[in-house]
C-alpha cells in the first residue's frame, strides 16, 4: 500500500511508529471496491485480516431461502477476518487492505504492546455484537431503529447544533436486516419521521434536523 499515512490515522495503528507500519504493511495488497461489490464470502481469504481503509462494509449472513441478516457495519479503521461464514459487501465505494495473518503475527511478536490495542479493538467488536443480540431479544423494533439512527449520527458529520447528515448507503431492506424487521416497517418508520420534520430522506443519505428527538427516543426505557 502506497499511502501509509491513512493507516497511521486508524485506531489500530495510531500508536505504532511509522517505521514499524512501513516495515509490515507497505507490501500488503490494497484493493478498491465499488458500491455493492462483494468483497468476501464464507471462509474466503481466511489467511488474511481485512482492514477497512475507507468506506463502509456490510457483513451479513445469507440463507438458502434468499433471506439475509446483517451482523455488523465496518467503517474506516475497523478490521475483520475471513474465518466465518459471513459475506462482506461494500455499501459505498471502499478500500480494503489485506494483511496476511503471518504478517500480523510477526508484528505482534516484535511489538508485544500492540496486543493491547488489538484486544481493545476486538473488545469493541464483541461489545457491538452483544448490543445487537440484546437489542433483537429485548427491544421493540421502533426502539431498535431509533438507536440505529442515533449510532450512525454519532459517527457522521454534524451540520449544525442539532443537525446531522448521515451518508447511510443502505436500502430500507438492508436496514431491516440490521434491526430484524421488514422493509415495510422501515419505510413507515422513516416516512413518519419525515412527516414530523425530524429528518429528511435523500438519496443514500438522511439529514437529521432534530437530533435531540432522535436521542431522546433512542434512550432505553430505564434510563
TrEMBL record:
Any one annotated GO CC term: cytosol
Cyclic nucleotide-binding domain boundaries: 12-81
GO terms of molecular function: DNA binding; DNA-binding transcription factor activity; kinase activity
Keywords (A to Z) from UniProt: DNA-binding, Kinase, Transcription, Transcription regulation, Transferase
Pfam families assigned: cNMP_binding, HTH_Crp_2
Domain HTH crp-type: 139-212
Keyword DNA-binding tagged: yes
Protein name: cAMP-binding domain of CRP or a regulatory subunit of cAMP-dependent protein kinases
